[in-house]
Amino acid sequence: MSEHTDSAIVVGASIGGLLAARVLSVTHARVTVVERDVLADGAVHRRGVPQSRHAHGLLARGREALEELFPGLTAELTALGVPAADLQSGFRWVNAGRLLCQAPSGLVGLGVSRALLESRVRARVRALLGVGIADGCAATGLAVSADGRRVTGLRVVRAGGAAEVLGADLVVDATGRGSRAPSWLESLGYPAPEVDEVPIGLAYASRAYRRDASGPDGAAIAGTPADPRGGVMIAQEDDRWIVSVGGILGDAAPLDHAGFTAFTATLPSPLIHEVVRDAEPLGDAVRFRFPASSRRRYERLGRFPEGFLVMGDAVASFDPVYGQGMSVAAVEALALRRCLDRGTEDLAHRFFRAAATVIDSPWRIAVGGDLRFPGVPGPRTRSVRAVNAYLERLHVAAEHDPAVGRAFLRVVSLLDPPQRLFAPGTALRVMRGTRSAALTGGSPVRHAAPALPGTGGAR
Ligand SMILES: Cc1cc2nc3c(=O)[nH]c(=O)nc-3n(C[C@H](O)[C@H](O)[C@H](O)COP(=O)(O)OP(=O)(O)OC[C@H]3O[C@@H](n4cnc5c(N)ncnc54)[C@H](O)[C@@H]3O)c2cc1C
């Protein structure tokens, strides 16, 4: 085992791992990011992050958190042609069949491709003092102290097949939804976390298109129980659209040109179809299957080894309907920084509790929403049903009331907790909005796409 003093290892050089490394670079003299893929320079898709070929955008809180960790990143990205859009006036959101009222909100998101974002963040991390990235190196398990109470390092296998143990005071698992941490823990005599799982059977198909710069910034169209197909279309760098469409319970969009285009016409709004129909495709469509949202409840474990943490999708990976995963990882990284400010005593319990608070909100909104679909198995508690019923009314009000729309987008963007939607001021507006919609007989309609530029969306 190599010598170590005050060193940390992060497993996974994707968004979660890179942000953890940034935070640890302040508290640990040496940080090694261990990545199974061999990393190429630049913005390229790679095997370990198959979702990068599908629509990704960065919500307001995620952008702010990244900016806090890497000052100037937003300007760096926009200089590379990444569109920065007001999430309410620029981007179009269709929820419950209703187009959210457009108005300036001050919530700025980025239409940055996953590959470009990761490559710029990786370059920033590589430049940090004391941080190194060991790529082509797969983690296989944890090394522990003789009494088994403390993690002392990481077992790895290098690309050539050589196995070794890298010593560290702290190991952070950021290996995504396929994380082996539960079985690593069990093999050391620790309990694995309970798992909350909602099988949704999402099947995405995605394709890039050339974008006329005068076109919209994007659109997110959420499926409804009556019309479960959805899609997202995001304006990205290099004057291109990334369009992802899909259904639940295995309802997959065809990958061929005619089939894909026809599928976009079946979404609850024509916003995406009207772009795809006329735009020039850039390459073939690709598929991604997302069987279930899952959340590992590390915060509930009584026994956990010292010197080990898990974060990002490795803890919770949920329906990307609102594109929140990278923002969650970024806010978790800030939570880790706050926990480390108070030292390493009881770090795991403190961090997992903080991470659970970050995850609660997007989980309730995205995964609670999945339970609206009758075929999706899962417990429809009274609170899930009440929240969904309220949100249904909120989307009616948000069609005409920009303040209600903004309140919703602040929650989706992780800037406010969901409880804020029930605050008296918003609840009153929701009540008034639904009453006036009832008076005018306003039921969801397949509205025509507005003539002016807009943006893209999700299932
Ligand atoms: C279709 C789709 C669309 C999405 N859209 C959005 C969006 O618009 N906005 C948004 O914010 N989020 C979105 N997300 C979520 C987002 O992709 C994830 O939340 C985010 O990538 C989480 O990053 P992570 O670092 O935790 O894990 P991952 O990105 O999964 O990375 C895991 C890393 O660990 C490495 N690794 C795995 N095993 C090992 C091992 N044994 N040893 C060493 N390395 C290993 C992998 O190679 C990889 O680099 C979307 C997800 C999907 C599926």
UniProtKB/TrEMBL annotation:
It comes from Geodermatophilus sabuli. The lineage of its organism: Bacteria, Bacillati, Actinomycetota, Actinomycetes, Geodermatophilales. PANTHER family: THIAMINE THIAZOLE SYNTHASE (PTHR43422). InterPro entries: FAD/NAD-bd_sf (IPR036188). This is 2-polyprenyl-6-methoxyphenol hydroxylase. Residues 439-459 are annotated as: Disordered. It comes from the Bacteria.
